[in-house]
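User: Assemble these into one structure.

Assistant: Restating your components, then the assembled model:
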Amino acid sequence: MARYTIAGVEVNRVSLKNLLLGDKVIYIAYGFLVFALIGMIDVFWDRYFLVSATAFDAGLFPGNREVAAAMKEAVFGSGGEVKREAPWSLYIVNYMYMIYVGSGIVFLVALAELFNITLIKRAAAGFLTLGLGMILAGLFTILVDLNILHLHWMLLSPRYNSGMWLMLPLYIIYIPLIVLEIYLILSHHTNLAKKLALPILLMSLAVEFLEFYVQAKLFDMNSARHLWTTYPLLTFYFMISAFTASAAVMMLYTFLVYRNTDRTKCAAMMDLVKKITLYSVIALGSYEATAYLFIDKKWAGIILFGDFKFYFYAYLLLAVAIPFVLLFKERSSKLAKVIASVSIIIGTYLGRIIFVYGGNAYPMSDRFGIGFEKYGEYEAVKEIVFFMPSWGEAAIVIGSLGIIIFVYRVINLFFSVSMMREP
Amino acid sequence: MNFAMALDYQSCIDCKACEVACKEENGVQLGADKQRIWVTQSEKSIFGEPFVVLHPSQCNHCQDAPCVDVCPTGASYFAIGGIVMSNKETCILCRGCMEACPYDARFVDDTHVAVDKCTFCYDTRIVKGEMTTACQATCPTKVRLFGDLDDEEGELVQLLKHRKFYVLKENEGTVPKLFYLLPEHDMNYAMNSVNEETNIYTWDEFKPLIEKAKTKRSSQWQDIQ
């Protein structure tokens, strides 16, 4: 393949046809992106074009059956994209998962860079691109969640001390730093890459801490989101589970990218990542085993024995038990590692869902300080406990996978980030 | 001016008149639960007999409102008189304010694609010089009394001077301005309305908290006329 050298980086010459229709990976990305597009159309239609009847309409047309039917739909029906009872749902699950896991990958790669772990350093550019893709996928999800037509007010009327603005400067620095690190690796500036690893590592941790502060601490005052704040040391849960998922994603990535090109290095790298994954799984299991000693017993009861028990045990089984059994052996097969990775990825995602939906769904509010009150707003969905996400919401989450694949594939096509490099 | 409301909640009969009036005035779907205004039933039992406490509620218009702090665009703000407002034009629907509110007083208004809440009828009545809210005006049992905390001779402060009261979730430090008047002549009702940790206040005890919070926040009050 013909190459140019620009600023010390070899850039592959890629034809437009190759860029847009080159291989099966791009078709997989397109498949997911179609979901994103359909989801956005669905969400925006519901949000901006759905006509909703109000009390005014009832006053203007008293006794009108159509208005009455429309009002009934508006109050009790499934119309409208955003529901009061599920204000932060699948969007926030996906956003937090992607941001945390993406930052976790960046953190682990930066750590490997600092400690000269050659195996990881060889594939660092690819790992970092994957982490970057996940962070961008998370930002895509949350962007769709916001009222896009009014987003210009973020610039026209900013309130910088609010939680959301806390993250913006961080991302403005963090994302370019990851890009710069990829550049330094590709341009063989190994010493500079190592020096930059420390601030990147610290910023990855800052992202994990600050995201918790911004997202979870907001729940501190809201009793309907009681689950978030009753859980002891929740920030550590978020971080440990994110690192577990990050290691799992890295193991799966290693298998998918290197299984045919460099089998020996692939096996060695998978073994190394396996160890990181195993330690993370043990840490996560230890956390879950001890957390309930400190949690409010009512909430512990709900999670352990109540309506959330199946989801919670599924999370424990997939994120902790199955991977532990598969990875604990001295020599796990590749297949076992892949199954463990997929299991962790699904399990930790389920863990995020439990926290977001659990807080939203369970009608347990002590707003008046005189015991848990009757919370009629959840009656309609009591049977299913979880609020089912709308089709559009689910499609956007599926579409975010397309963002990861697309970002990775395009960068890889031009810069061959998946290539193993001698550090 | 420092607008607030006292609620003689023992008189509430859950007739929904306040809710209908509020929703009609503000174009909210009738029947939509917990949008702008609501009445919550807290159920208990005394010697096996069920006992229901009705708590009419809405935005508490906190003096030290967390919803204002978390808003990234200033869509949540204080209007003159310390009324917490929500601007539909600048709301980006991040829902941070909904999460920050300890009283679950905010909701997404699908017709405007923005977060909405009780405004003490600021835009529909108060700016026009009226001194009553739709909910107060329609309540048949006179549960609600809207007024000005700065007016020592006013009806609201006079009532607070003569009755003991409490506020919701005081430990959140938001200094709310919905004052729940403790039932005077029915100790059973009073005891079932509050828990052991609820602080019961007199006006002289609570006034310094109000003044302190007002001093802290009044520079942020905006004139929307």
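Chain A touches chain B through 55 residues (CB under 8 Å).
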